[in-house]
Amino acid sequence: MRSNQTATPASYTAPPSFTGLAPGGAAPGVPGTRSKATGPLLVGATVAMGLMAGLFFAFDVSVMPGLAAGDDRTYVTAMQHINKSIENGLFGLVFVGAFVATGVAAWLLHKAGRRQAALWAALATALYVVALIVTMGVNIPLNNQLAAAGDPSQIQDFAAVRSHFADTWVPVNMLRTALCTGGLLALTRSLVLHGRAGR
C-alpha cells in the first residue's frame, strides 16, 4: 500500500524566515533579547546604590547625632576632616558609578523589551538623579563653606559656623537617604523581574 504523503528529509530544517529567529536563538532587536552584560550591570548598580544609601544612613543615625552631642569646636573640626577625607577615588567611583550603572542597565532592559524591569530601573535612575542634584546644589556648597571658615584655631564663632552648616545639611542628608533607599528598592524589584524573565 503506497502513501500519498511525501516524506520530509531528515536533514531538513526550517529557514530563519519561518522560525523568526536567527541562528543562535534570537535576532537583534527582537523583544526578549538579552545582553549578557545586563544582569551583572544591574547587580553592580544595586550594590552601588545600596552603598550610597548606607553611607547617607550612617550619617543620619550615628555620625551627625554623635557630633551633635559634642561642643561646637569639635563639631566643626570633625566635619571639616570628614568632608576632606571623603574626597577619594573609591567614594568617587561608587558615587558616579551608581548613576552610570543604573542608567545603562535601564537602557539595556528597555532595549531588550523588558518593559517592567526597565521602568523600575528608570525610576531608580530618576531618584538618584534627584539625590545628585541635592548633593551638588546643597550639601557640597555647605561643605565648601565649612572648609572656607578656615583653620579651627582661627575661627571666632564656632556656634554660628556650626548652626549655618547643620541646620540645612542634616535634614537634606536625610532626604538623600530616602532617595537612595527608594532607588535601592526600585533596583531590587528590577533585578527580580529581570531574573524571572531569564528563566
What's the helix and strand layout?
Blueprint: H1 16-19, H2 38-68, H3 72-85, H4 89-111, H5 115-148, H6 158-197
Using brief descriptors, characterize the structure shown.
single chain, 199 residues, mainly alpha, 73% helix
Q: How would you characterize the overall build of this protein?
A:
The chain is mainly alpha-helical and 199 residues long. It contains six helices and no strands. It has helices at 16-19, 38-68, 72-85, 89-111, 115-148, 158-197. It is elongated, with a radius of gyration of 26 Å. The protein starts with 15 loop residues before the first helix and ends with a helix. The model is unreliable at 5-33 (pLDDT under 50).
| N-to-C order of helices and strands | HHHHHH
| Strand residue percentage | under 5%
Low-confidence stretches: 5-33
Terminal residue distance: 48 Å
Helix proportion range: over 70%
What profile does the largest beta sheet have?
none
Quick summary of this structure?
The protein has 199 residues and is an all-alpha fold.
